[in-house]
Design goal:
CATH topology of the largest domain: Dihydrodipicolinate Reductase, domain 2
Bound molecules: nicotinamide-adenine-dinucleotide
Number of domains: 2
Order of helices and strands: EHEHEHEHEHEHEHHHHEHEEEEEEHHEH
CATH architecture of the largest domain: 2-Layer Sandwich
CATH class of the largest domain: Alpha Beta
Structural class: alpha/beta
Strand content: 15-25%
Radius of gyration: 21 Å
């Protein structure tokens, strides 16, 4: 089997996806990494030495890494606003890309990445790891079995307890870097809504606000814009309640509540509601069909279930007519989805399998998030979501 030479751009939190792939015995080696932050670069070098007794080559400039290292693939796990430039550079140099979500922070940027992959006949996969989770796959399987009839509505509520730590203490807080947390965080759920509905949004509107974090004390201005705060530095269950937090990012202008309504091409009516300051943490989807309703209680944690109601009752019933119990994945990163999606990337490179996550899906999630944010910032007006160019719609990015 051909040895695969992989690289990482952006070595901090998500850069560790490379570590999952690195398996010299299986012929997959992460030979190089690139990061503009000296501390992160050194920490990656040290990690590979300590964990794998491996001398990884480290670069400050990702372009130098791509030009020198003859890579078969690269994990682009840098902040969202870097994705377009870095993915296009790798693709133009014929290096296959695993690109973290969101695909890009503009619709034009997203389209440019897809077009560059096609023109250079180079493989592209996007890190929509929710397509690899047990509960989303189970919901999709139930829908496809016909158990709830024809799907007519999908509603998702998203409670984020760690919003302050993960999104309002660093670059995520500033819309210049992300456009909106509808892309940064919501791209996952918009993609899952589209995937469950087997369609995508044509029209969107929304409301939202910066309700809590905008009022909190911020760190002093003038510190380096792109400083990398590692999650372990800032993530603590003691950071509660939200209104008592300090040391927030200097430029906070993204909303901490986002609510969008979506009309899908096949007539499904959907909505997504995201809040960044809840005490608890989960995603709650309900799917309503012509013969029943599905809802997940909990997602990847202990005791998570999917409930299916398919008999009429005229009062509240906590337990569905059928209960599907999900495996406990509370100790696995992202409910066990990360090892699966990384395996998907390696198998795509080897031509063994086609990823569950698609660049077209990632693009439609970005386009819906961009237009949803635009609506929120313009009084909730309904906006059309631009379609993907016809030649990209059916292009297969994994061969
Ligand atoms: N799929 C998921 O579940 C998931 C979860 C978290 C984050 N993400 C995505 O992963 C990406 C990275 O997120 P993170 O939380 O690891 O961010 P982070 O800020 O913790 O890490 C980003 C790293 O990129 C480096 N970097 C910044 N600019 C760079 C440049 N120009 N060239 C090279 N390196 C650069 C930083 O120094 C840092 O080491 C984001 O796009 C985010 O949306 C995905």
């Amino acid at each position: 089997m051909k040895k695969l030479r992989l690289g990482i751009i952006g070595t901090c939190n998500r850069g560790k996806l490379g570590d999952i792939a690195h398996n010299a015995a299986n012929g997959v080696e992460v030979v190089a990494c690139a990061d503009i932050n000296d501390m992160q670069r050194q920490s990656c070098i040290d990690r590979y030495k300590k964990e794998y007794n491996y001398d990884i080559h480290a670069y400050c400039d990702y372009r130098e890494m791509i030009e020198k290292e003859h890579l078969d693939g690269v994990f682009v796990t840098s902040p969202d606003f870097c994705h377009e430039e870095q993915a296009c550079f790798a693709l133009k140099n014929k290096v296959a890309v695993y690109l973290e979500k969101p695909l890009a922070i503009t619709i034009e940027g997203a389209d440019k990445i897809l077009r560059t992959a096609k023109e250079n006949k180079t493989k592209l996969m996007v890190g929509h790891n929710m397509r690899y989770m047990d509960f989303t796959n189970k919901m999709r399987e139930i829908i496809q079995s016909g158990a709830i009839g024809e799907v007519k509505a999908i509603w998702c509520r998203h409670f984020i307890s760690y919003g302050g730590d993960a999104y309002f203490r660093d670059w995520h807080a500033d819309r210049q870097n992300t456009t909106s947390l509808l892309l940064q965080k919501g791209a996952h759920d918009i993609d899952i809504i589209h995937w469950l509905a087997d369609s995508s949004t044509v029209r969107v509107n929304g409301f939202g606000s910066l309700s809590v974090y905008g009022n909190l004390p911020r760190r002093e201005k003038g510190r380096e814009k792109l400083e990398c705060l590692t999650i372990k530095d800032i993530w603590s269950k003691n950071n509660w309640p939200p209104e008592e937090q300090t040391e927030m990012y200097p430029n906070i202008n993204n909303e901490d509540i986002n609510m969008i309504n979506m009309q899908l091409a096949n007539g499904v009516q959907a909505c997504y509601q995201q809040c960044h300051f809840t005490p608890d943490c989960s995603r709650n989807y309900t799917v309503i069909g012509t013969k029943g309703r599905l809802e997940n209680y909990g997602d990847c944690g202990v005791g998570a279930t999917i409930q299916l109601w398919n008999r009429r009752t005229d009062t509240f019933v906590l337990e569905g007519d059928v209960t599907y119990r999900m495996p406990d994945r509370s100790n696995d990163m992202h409910g066990g989805a990360d090892p699966l999606i990384v395996r998907g990337f390696v198998e795509m490179l080897r031509g063994i399998s086609t990823p569950a996550s698609t660049p077209q899906g990632a693009r439609m999630a970005v386009a819906t998030g961009v237009k949803g944010a635009e609506s929120i910032r313009n009084g909730g007006i309904p906006l059309e979501v631009p379609e993907l160019d016809e030649d990209l719609k059916n292009y297969v990015f994994s061969i």
